User: Fold this.
Amino acid sequence: EGLPTLTHRASSRGRDRKAGEFLLVDFIGSQQSSFRMVDLTIGQVAAIIAFCIVIARAWCPTIGTFILAGQLRDRETAATCFLIAIVGVVTPLGLYESNELRSKAVKADFEYMRDSSTFYTSMTMRDDKPFTRVCSLDGCYVPCPYTSDVTVIETDDPAVPDILREIYTSGTRYERTTISNYFDIEWRQTTTQYDRQLNNGTPVASGIYRRLETISLLDDARAVEGLVVDAREGRIGFRNHTIPSGYPLGVTWTEDLLFWEPDVECVDTNTTFDFEITTGSQTDAGVSVSKLRLTDRGGFVNINTTAP
Assistant:
């Protein structure tokens, strides 16, 4: 008594079952038990896993230390002490990977990489706008060199002739070079200019000046769209914004670039502005400037009038 009894009952269709079907067997007990699943949220499961990890990290080294302490002898050789001292210093350093440069240079293909700074986002698209130029004399348009022999004109052609392109690009045309020539330097922003005396009144591309970003406070070299700005040395290099493709870990290379370095020098013009400053309550600001004059200290009287 008190033990559950099991009754075996087979389905009546057990004789006629086909291949692939299972025999239906029911086990019926005199006593029934119920099971209930515990509801856990994702946060609770994550907390349990984190708790187990913390316990494992805290106790595993301690347990290992006690095991090693029980296995070691009271006295060790000098070699064992020496190895322990080395391992105590070297082991915390760990293993790491390092990238080393190849000893031999390889050829690489350069591809254009768009600049994300304001030097690209504010740049005007070139489309098919050519280089133009204008020559004038005494306020009147005159033919530019290598364009025409006509002395009296009604309209001027601002297009740059091929002979000038040949002169200013001959040094970099016949060989692959990274040095920029005259026609590689363009206005970053352009607009359209209309003049009835230029190109028969049709639109002509013209450059405009706009301040984009302050780079005077930089203290390093930075590559922007079309330029290499070296704020440390105070120079600007012209370069196409391209990098080697297919090297996710980075590469190093050398290039010959055209740099502009301003040569600033203060020159005494031998002229001064002289004035007097007085303070008083007669003016709103309390300060007045009087007797403002330009004094010639040899700049005009001793000027060189000979032609250079």
